[in-house]
Amino acid sequence: MFDEIQLFCDWYAPKKLSKSKSVQFKKKFRLEIKKLLSKLNYKNVTFVHRDFHVSNLMYYNKKNCSNR
Question: Does the N terminus or the C terminus of the chain have fewer Cβ atoms within 10 A?
Fold first, then answer.
């Protein structure tokens, strides 16, 4: 989950922040995300699919996965 969240720092932040601010932001962001993720009580059974197109919607037991 952390790797997927970190993509925000890798792709979006550098487009909106200067290089020095981006480096500082990444450090703070990663620290905060690690704190938040450590507080979550979830089983690691989550599938993360990064190719968000309507043709890539998945169904499980004839129900849309987003409804679970």
Answer: C
**What is the DSSP code (8-state) at residue 3?**
H
> Tokens 């932001």 sit at which residue?
25
Sequence spans of domains, the chain = 2-67
Coil, helix or strand at residue 1 = coil
pTM to 2 decimals? 0.55
Instruction: Report CA torsion sign: 36, 10, 8, 12.
Output: positive
Q: Residue 60 — pLDDT band, cuts 50, 70, 90?
A: low
Neighbours of 14 (CB within 10 A): 15
